[in-house]
Q: What sequence folds into this?
């Protein structure tokens, strides 16, 4: 009887455990159901456009009539003068944006980190441009850098310095975009650098002070070496963003990057050929060429970030 009682108890326990397991499995599937709309959205708005763009890169298409052309679209893009001009503009603006913003942002972050009180105030002030819409920022900069009414040229003229045409002259238009990019991105760089600066152990600085190291020596031999990972992250994210630049140059110079295509980037070239010229096959081919360029430079940056400095 005792064995039967034990067996019945164990059976009841197994049944109860099975019910709980089934209930948990049902609950899990309930949560998966809530993910279906997001999953469908990713398929519809991300996966499908990527696949369709790849297919179109092998066709001559105006959106309604298509004909297979093989690799002709890629040859057309790679032999196009405007495309390589757009590549040059993209790299020129991107290189100077990164070279100016990362060191300048790091210096500002170091200064803010050394402030005893008011750090949050400076964080907010410097980060405000980053949360500003890039379209709104581009429109503001058209007034700020206006050749006659802009505040920058007013300040230069008051100091007896030359007043460039900025967005009205091909020789200075890229520098106008670079100023806009630095102003818009520097807040992000400062916040990221500040986060890493505050994570550096204070014991390292205390030991350096005991050894007689000056503030400059501590900055050169403790702070900067501990920031290499952050610099690599900022370099990669900055490059990826720079190579995809479109919104601000479109607002300032339109799809052809006026004046004289001096600020047309790869993204603007793709938009011009696709949505202005209705050459969707060429635009798709240019998109994948840009993707390969971004992939190559991201790989190079990753390799460089793993090198011991």
A:
């Amino acid at each position: 009887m005792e064995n039967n009682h034990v067996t019945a108890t164990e059976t009841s326990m197994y049944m109860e455990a099975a019910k709980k397991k089934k209930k948990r499995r049902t609950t899990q599937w309930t949560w998966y159901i809530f993910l279906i709309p997001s999953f469908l959205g990713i398929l519809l708005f991300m996966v499908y456009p990527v696949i369709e763009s790849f297919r179109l890169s092998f066709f001559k298409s105006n959106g309604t009539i298509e004909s297979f052309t093989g690799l002709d679209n890629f040859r057309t893009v790679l032999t196009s003068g405007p495309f390589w001009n757009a590549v040059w503009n993209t790299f020129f603006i991107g290189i100077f944006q990164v070279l100016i913003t990362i060191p300048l942002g790091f210096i500002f972050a170091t200064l803010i980190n050394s402030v005893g009180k008011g750090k949050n105030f400076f964080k907010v002030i410097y980060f405000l441009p980053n949360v500003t819409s890039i379209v709104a920022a581009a429109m503001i900069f058209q007034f700020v850098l206006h050749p006659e009414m802009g505040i920058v040229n007013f300040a230069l003229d008051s100091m007896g310095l030359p007043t460039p045409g900025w967005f009205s002259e091909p020789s200075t238009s890229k520098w106008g975009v670079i100023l806009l990019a630095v102003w818009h991105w520097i807040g992000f760089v400062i916040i990221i650098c500040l986060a890493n600066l505050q994570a550096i152990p204070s014991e390292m600085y205390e030991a350096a002070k005991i050894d007689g190291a000056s503030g400059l020596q501590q900055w050169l031999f403790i702070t900067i070496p501990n920031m290499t990972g952050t610099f690599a992250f900022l370099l990669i994210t900055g490059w990826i963003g720079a190579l995809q630049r479109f919104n601000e140059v479109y607002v300032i110079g339109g799809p052809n990057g006026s004046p004289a295509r001096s600020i047309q980037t790869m993204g603007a070239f793709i938009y011009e050929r696709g949505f202005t010229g209705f050459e969707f096959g060429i635009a798709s081919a240019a998109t994948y060429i840009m993707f390969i360029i971004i992939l190559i430079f991201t790989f190079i940056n990753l390799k460089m970030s793993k090198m011991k400095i």
In short: Confidence is low (pLDDT under 50) at residues 1-6.
